[in-house]
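thought: fold this chain, then report.
action: predict
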Amino acid sequence: VQLQASGGGLVQSGGSLRLSCAASGFTLRDNAIGWFRQTPGKEREGVSSLNSDDSTTYYAPEVRGRFTISRDNAKNTVYLQMNNLKPEDTAVYFCATTAKIIKKGWIVAMMTPSTYAYWGQGTQVTVSS
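observation:
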C-alpha cells in the first residue's frame, strides 16, 4: 500500500500547480481523501478533503476559491489543483486516505491527521513573492 505524491515545485505568486497523489497496492475509489500541508515548526494542517463517493468536498478558508480537489478513479489518482498561489501557501503538501466512514463531525474528522490510515511522502511547494 503506497501513496506517491508529486507535482510540487517553485512558482511565483499568482501561479498555479497541480499536485498528484497516485495509489498503488489498493484502490482509492470509495476512500475519503485529504490533502494536508506542513511548515517547519508547525503542526500539519488540513487543506482540503473529498468524501468517499465524491459528493462532498471541504476547503480550509485560506484556500477556498483557489484550490480544487478531485479524483480520477481510472488512474487511481487524486489531485489538488492550486491556483493564485500565495507565499503563505509555501509548505510540504501531503495526501492521505482513509476507508473510515465518518457519520458525525465530518469536516473536523477530515481535517484531522489522525483520521487517516495512509499517507504520501510529501511534496514541497514554494511560492516566491
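thought: worth noting. Residues 106-110 form the longest helix (5 residues).
final: C-alpha cells above.
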